[in-house]
Specification:
Largest sheet of chain B: none
Number of helices of chain B: 10
CATH topology of the largest domain in chain A: Arc Repressor Mutant, subunit A
CATH architecture of one domain in chain B: Orthogonal Bundle
Radius of gyration of chain A: 27 Å
CATH superfamily of one domain in chain B: RNA polymerase sigma factor, region 2, helix turn helix motif
Oligomer: heterodimer
Low-confidence stretches of chain A: 1-7
CATH architecture of the largest domain in chain A: Orthogonal Bundle
Strand order of the largest sheet of chain A: 3-2-1-4
Number of strands of chain A: 10
Distance between the termini of chain A: 98 Å
Helix content of chain A: 25-40%
Strand content of chain B: under 5%
CATH class of the largest domain in chain A: Mainly Alpha
Distance between the termini of chain B: 40 Å
Helix content of chain B: over 70%
Shape of chain B: elongated
Low-confidence stretches of chain B: 1-6, 96-107
Number of domains of chain A: 3
Structural class of chain A: alpha/beta
Number of helices of chain A: 11
Shape of chain A: elongated
Largest sheet of chain A: 4 strands, mixed
Strand content of chain A: 15-25%
CATH superfamily of the largest domain in chain A: Winged helix-like DNA-binding domain superfamily/Winged helix DNA-binding domain
Structural class of chain B: mainly alpha
CATH class of one domain in chain B: Mainly Alpha
Chain lengths: ~280, ~190
């Protein structure tokens, strides 16, 4: 081949054509990954829950929606209807979300992490109810009246119930740990009272014991050694030995008998009977 | 190549960044991934760098006043962000040796013989490009592999048009000489 027959242009074209073969296709999924990092896209995963699988949606701000897993199309619809944007399914959640789910849903304690929640769009009252409910420890329950008192709205007991019924993030925000003061288990948004009972049992709580005490008129348990009284499921109440357990009808009764309220569970009387 | 009118998209970016941004990504991801790949050398890192570049671009767009977004030339602007992100990424790493490896992945849609031929071709071009003096390598690659115009190249590299043009020309001439030498060697071996 004679090099002189190459015009300079022809050579350039060979070079540019050859170099163009080095172009690589963009890897798939780049757009989704970018949108997710910018909080412009949300994703959801399926995880094991205490009473069957769950769909958990999350975005840049945190966990946004949890539902018991049934039809993925229904879940995607619900998400779109709630947030006005689509959600896509992924196989694994990011590490932070995964750790939060392990800790909140299964009680597998690692280093404690702040639970990232996307609840900014909710009304202030509902948000406060949900954040307060998040504080209830695993294996314990509190009455609706307790949540109401804790957020400074002691009479808004029924409103607390309504807010929890609309809890968009059940299992992570443990609305199942909020029960009626009269010992009845109360309603549950994620599958009714039976499901609520099952979730509590899965957390190691004896629900029949839970109902037996209030039915017998006992709302609180006091200790005659420390003179402190608690909700029956409070960790401080559960470690009072049999002989020292003092059943108490009400906070008022407790105070009259010389007990003070536990600083951990901060027990209160319901403002109405059986609230 | 790539002469899509971007003004309209820029106007929409200025009006509603969140809903128009996905289109910016779709339109330019090939270029940005390419620019990143030219610097970092392997596809996985290039993907990370390209993502970082778009995330940075989004944050900048969020801060820019509307006039600035409307007047943006998206390709060189994004390419420059990607270049900086890629250079930050390789800073402190050993120099990318990966450009030959890039040629090792076959195209998905071709028969085995064709794949083998193309791979040889690609491996050769990758080798020739890697053999260029570093001063010419990036301008030549961005011009001929990623298809930036001289004006875009000048903006991306932050250097005058004349100077990038002459670097591309000299680099291309060297590459052509190397290619011809390679061809002669192949002919000699075949005889």
């Amino acid at each position: 081949m004679n090099q002189a027959t190459h015009s300079s242009d022809l050579g350039d074209r060979t070079v540019s054509h050859g170099l163009r073969s080095l172009r690589r296709p963009t890897p798939p999924g780049m757009l989704e990954a970018i949108l997710e990092r910018l909080g412009l896209g949300d994703a959801y995963v399926e995880i094991e829950g205490p009473i069957g699988p769950l769909f958990v949606a999350y975005g840049d701000h945190g966990i946004s929606l949890v539902e018991r897993a049934a039809d993925p199309a229904d879940f995607e619809h619900l998400f779109l209807a709630t947030f006005g944007r689509p959600v896509r399914r992924v196989e694994r959640a990011p590490t932070l979300i995964e750790r939060v789910l392990q800790a909140r849903v299964w009680g597998r304690a690692g280093r404690p992490v702040k639970v990232p929640l996307d609840i900014e769009h909710l009304p202030d009252f509902e948000r406060r109810v949900l954040l307060k409910t998040l504080e209830i420890p695993r294996g314990e329950v509190r009455p609706y009246a307790w949540v109401a008192a804790e957020i400074g709205r002691p009479l808004a007991v029924r409103a607390v119930g309504n807010a929890l019924a609309r809890n968009p993030i059940p299992f992570v925000i443990p609305c199942h740990r909020v029960v009626r003061s009269d010992g009845r288990i109360g309603q549950y948004g994620a599958g009714g009272p039976q499901a609520k009972r099952a979730v509590l049992e899965a957390e190691g709580l004896d629900t029949s014991e839970l109902e037996r005490l209030p039915a017998a008129g006992v709302r609180f348990i006091g200790s005659d050694t420390t003179n402190v009284y608690c909700y029956p499921s409070c960790r401080n109440a559960r470690r009072i030995r049999g002989a020292h357990r003092v059943p108490l009808r009400s906070a008022e009764h407790a105070h009259r008998s010389g007990f003070r309220a536990c600083l951990v569970c901060r027990p209160v009387d319901a403002p109405f009977r059986a609230a | 190549m790539g002469k899509v009118p971007t003004d309209d998209l820029c106007a929409r970016l200025a009006a509603d960044l969140d809903s128009a941004f996905a289109e910016l990504v779709v339109r330019h991801q090939q270029l940005i991934f390419g620019v990143a790949l030219r610097v970092v050398g392997d596809e996985a890192s290039a993907q990370d760098v390209a993502q970082d570049a778009f995330v940075r671009a989004y944050r900048s767009l969020k801060k820019y006043p509307a006039e600035r977004v409307c007047g943006l030339r998206a390709r060189p602007w994004l390419a420059r962000i990607a270049l900086n992100a890629a250079r930050n990424h390789v800073r402190g790493l050993r120099p990318a040796a990966g450009i030959d490896e890039l040629a090792e992945q076959p195209a998905r849609d071709a028969g085995p013989v064709l794949i083998a031929e193309r791979r040889d071709e690609r491996a050769m071009w990758a080798r020739l490009l890697a053999g260029l003096p570093s001063r010419y390598r990036l301008p030549v690659a961005l011009r001929h592999v990623d298809g930036l115009s001289y004006a875009e190249l000048s903006e991306t590299l932050g250097r005058p048009v004349g100077s990038v043009k002459s670097d591309v020309h000299r680099g291309t001439a060297l590459l052509r000489a190397a290619y011809d030498a390679e061809q002669r060697r192949l002919v000699r071996e075949a005889v």
